[in-house]
Amino acid sequence: MKRLLPDTFTLLLVAMVVVASLLPISGEPAEWFGLATNLAIALLFFLHGSRLSTDVVVAGFLNWRLQGFILAVTFVVFPLLGLLVGVLSPWLIPPALYLGLLYVCVLPSTVQSSIAFTSIAGGNVPAAICAASASNILGMFLTPALVAVLFTAQGHVGVSLEMIGKILLQLFLPFVLGQVLQPVIGNWIRARKSLLAPVDRGSILMVVYLAFSNAVIQGIWSEFTTADLALVIGLDIALLVVVLLVTIFCSNLFGFSREDRIAAVFCGSKKSLASGVPMAGVIFAGQSVGAIVLPLMLFHQIQLMVCAWLARRFANAQVKAERLVQPGA
Question: I need a surface site. Which of 96, 171, 242, 259 has the fewest CB within 10 A?
């Protein structure tokens, strides 16, 4: 039951939304806070790059069938499901919240939780590390590209050279710099996860506070009802369940080993809050970013609860199977 409760980070996210609703930042203070947020995001992606071992990525890519499958689920199956929801969205959900759901569908996979759940379930951890890392690297290009194609087709958001430049400068350049320095500082960074965790989480909390401050000023809570939010939660759950079923069925169909199936399930079904929130601030600058990231924040907690339960199911099933094959069992 404890695993189904919100984690500390989720509670902090909720706290940021509450603080932004009661004390939204605006004017010149918001401009300075926005500058500090941009610097924090750049530092976040620098740390991502400096933590990632190049050797692990190269080794993981040798399992190209599994990697291709996970990327296809992340950047093809998920967006198609988002478009399917869009067929019903005019009658079900406000356009701004639907765009948030569609944005969830074009994001890369998580890194930490995908690897952690794969490990708990007894899956292929090196492949999970590679898949999650590749997803986030490619996501810096594929997510804006998918936003440009899918959102523009519906008359909402276009892509511009300025947006591409901001993504390269704020996200990709710090990541590449981190990769260049990884042989020098990588071990030091990886050995101090607890020390550097505030940078990871703090930068996301800053983006959420700034995004919801702008959204509150624009009247986000008068725009959506409790029923709208309940519907978003239901659609988030439906998206996750469908993708989990697709990954489980198709990974069996393709003949993956048990370890690879587990990696496919946990890497293919996740969406990254750590990458999604900063990218939303760049891609949707000047728009109601709060409404865009709200479905992602809800999806984040749902995927943690469901996948924690599923990982334990996989692990318990393996324990039972091993007991059955033991002599005298």
Answer: 242
In a domain, 218, yes or no: yes
* Whole-number Å distance between alpha carbons of 200 and 189: 12
Residues of the chain short of pLDDT 70, as ranges, are 1-7, 54-61, 89-90, 153-164, 194-197, 286, 321-329
Instruction: Assign 3-state DSSP to the chain and report helix, strand, coil percentages, each to 5.
Output: 85, 0, 15
What is the rounded average pLDDT for all residues in the chain?
82
3-state secondary structure 103-128: HHHCCCCCCHHHHHHHHHHCCCHHHH
Neighbour-count burial for 208-221, b at 16+ CB within 10 Å, e otherwise: bbbbbbbbbeeebe
Q: With beta carbons less than 8 A apart as the criterion, state whether 275 and 112 touch.
A: no
Domain that holds residue 56: 2-317
Question: Would you give the DSSP letter of residue 171?
Answer: I
**Using DSSP, how many helices (H) and how many strands (E) does the chain show?**
17, 0
Domain of 276, CATH number, reads: 1.20.1530.20
Residue 327 within a domain: no
Indicate whether 328 belongs to any domain: no
Domain total in the chain: 1
* 3 state DSSP class of 5: coil
